[in-house]
């Protein structure tokens, strides 16, 4: 199958399913209504709860859930073949991921904007609340520590991305002032900001910055420290001051980047003979784990990701100003992420074959994907996407160095929005934990944010000054993330069961599948960790398995009672 044909077919499928299945979910399953008062209106405080136009909140939600997930996951998962990767991305995003995101957003909207762990107590049992807190805290702890490193690695690999990524901050602050203080139109303001943003991308090539080693701390360590300080500041400011406008700008940046990629696929298909050089199926790649269940764990964002439920119930539910907007924000964002993941598959399955390491065709692909080990490491995963994308975009007569800079900024910007949002959500989680423990004096935003950032810093630097400590626990992330997705779907199923009929089947079937996949993957991980003498990972993995089994049993008991 040609890359161009694959793109056209899948994109038409996403549009069609949004119109058909998405609207079915909104009208028949969740019964979205504009008359229901949402938390952003009822609890408007100008800081966390702020009624927001759906285009703006869409930008925040999408850029927060995307991050580097729909890039890194498919860039690794392609090793099992592009057909299994695309089947999982396409059907997973439509029938599992988007339903998961929409469901967790709607429940939070109807429960005062409370987090997933809070309404878990309502729909399953109070016993599960603190257990849910544990897995959520662990996931966000890893995300904050690792995404600081991701951005640091990108800055080291692509120094031309440093200036435009940091210049986004004053641009975003200005956009926030113009929209919320001066009353400017969000669309025209966002487009103007995006134009300025792309000017800085061009300037970034000429104003490259390479962080030196300072006091014996490597560049990645210095960047990680700076980024965690930034995350602290961004997470305590009102959402309209930085978080929301920056995400809105990044959503425009994404649209331009995706347009460039789409145009690049079309141009390369006619001028460079763009063909898929990756194998359709590769059931036993060298040194790789089995495709089942690990394809479904490796490709999370782009198909289904538990982290999305934290964004839906953490920040987005506090900003949606009309319940009917939830379909566009929750379901629509996930389908757009599926489209992005599709472009990533095309970039690493076809684009990389145009030129890589002085090779072309299958040889170029094999140089990147000769074994499981060659796909590991943040640098390898990001490089595969950036080079493949730049090869296609260069068919538009755009200089390759500009294309590489654009893609580098694109990846770093998305990672930074996830870092911002994850830090803010973790602050909410810590606040809820202390509130539940009756420790009111520890619930202030500065205290909670300090705990969040310091704990992430401790993880990042536990192995040394390079800030790569989180990589020690990263093998656990896939299972944690998909476990959270499975458990969130169980909660949504219990909510829908209260609504009568068989509405719950749209989430219960995906919940059962994800629970089975997660438990199987966790058991296989346990065997691997023990055989490799990774006892810390084995202990934490056992705890994760216990949490999944506990909540699943609790949910099953509750389900049969109602």
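-> sequence recovered:
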């Amino acid at each position: 199958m040609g890359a161009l044909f694959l793109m056209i077919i899948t994109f038409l499928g996403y549009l069609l399913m949004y119109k058909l299945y998405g609207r079915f979910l909104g009208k028949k399953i969740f019964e979205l209504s504009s008359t229901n008062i949402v938390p952003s209106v009822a609890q408007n405080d100008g800081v966390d709860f702020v009624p927001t136009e759906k285009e703006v909140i869409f930008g925040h939600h999408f850029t927060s859930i995307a991050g580097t997930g729909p890039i890194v996951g498919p860039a690794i998962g392609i090793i099992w073949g592009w057909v299994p990767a695309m089947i999982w991305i396409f059907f997973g995003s439509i029938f599992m991921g988007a339903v998961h995101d929409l469901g967790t957003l709607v429940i939070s909207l109807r429960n005062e904007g409370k987090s997933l762990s809070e309404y878990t107590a309502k729909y399953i049992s109070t016993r599960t609340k603190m257990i849910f807190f544990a897995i959520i805290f662990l996931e966000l702890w890893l995300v904050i520590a690792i995404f600081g490193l991701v951005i640091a690695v990108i800055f080291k690999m692509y120094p031309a991305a440093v200036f435009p990524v940091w210049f986004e901050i004053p641009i975003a602050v200005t956009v926030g002032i113009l929209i919320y203080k001066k009353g400017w139109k969000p669309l025209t303001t966002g487009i103007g900001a995006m134009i300025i943003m792309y000017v800085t991308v061009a300037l970034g090539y000429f104003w490259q910055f390479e962080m030196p080693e300072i006091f014996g701390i490597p560049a990645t360590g210095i960047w990680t420290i700076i980024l965690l300080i930034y995350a602290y500041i961004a997470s305590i400011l009102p959402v309209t001051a930085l978080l929301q406008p920056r995400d809105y700008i990044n959503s425009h940046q994404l649209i331009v980047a995706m347009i460039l990629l789409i145009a690049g696929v079309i141009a390369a298909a006619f001028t460079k003979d763009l063909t898929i050089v990756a194998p359709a199926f590769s059931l036993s790649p060298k040194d790789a784990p089995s495709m089942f269940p690990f394809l479904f764990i490796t490709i999370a964002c782009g198909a289904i990701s538990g982290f999305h439920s934290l964004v839906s119930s953490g920040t987005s539910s506090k900003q949606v100003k009309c319940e009917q907007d939830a379909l566009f924000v929750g379901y629509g964002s996930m389908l757009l992420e599926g489209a992005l993941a599709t472009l990533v598959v095309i970039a690493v399955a076809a684009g990389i074959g145009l030129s890589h390491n002085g090779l072309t065709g299958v040889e170029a692909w094999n140089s990147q994907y000769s074994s499981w080990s060659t796909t590991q490491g943040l640098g390898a995963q990001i490089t595969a996407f950036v080079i493949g994308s730049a090869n296609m975009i260069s068919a538009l007569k755009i200089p390759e160095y500009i294309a590489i800079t654009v893609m580098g900024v694109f990846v770093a910007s998305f990672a930074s929005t996830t870092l911002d949002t994850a830090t803010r959500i973790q602050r909410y989680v810590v606040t809820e934990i202390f509130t539940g423990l009756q420790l009111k004096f520890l619930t202030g935003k500065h205290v909670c944010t300090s705990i969040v950032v310091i704990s992430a810093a401790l993880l990042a630097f536990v192995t040394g000054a390079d800030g790569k400590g989180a990589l020690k626990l990263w093998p656990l992330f896939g299972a944690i993330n998909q476990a959270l997705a499975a458990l969130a779907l169980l909660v949504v199923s219990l909510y829908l069961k209260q609504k009568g009929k068989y509405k719950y089947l749209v989430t219960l079937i995906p919940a059962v599948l994800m629970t089975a996949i997660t438990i199987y993957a966790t058991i296989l991980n346990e065997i691997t960790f023990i055989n490799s003498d990774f006892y810390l990972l084995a202990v934490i993995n056992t705890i994760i398995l216990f949490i999944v089994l506990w909540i699943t049993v609790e949910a099953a008991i509750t389900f049969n009672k109602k």
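The CA atoms of residues 178 and 560 lie 53 Å apart.
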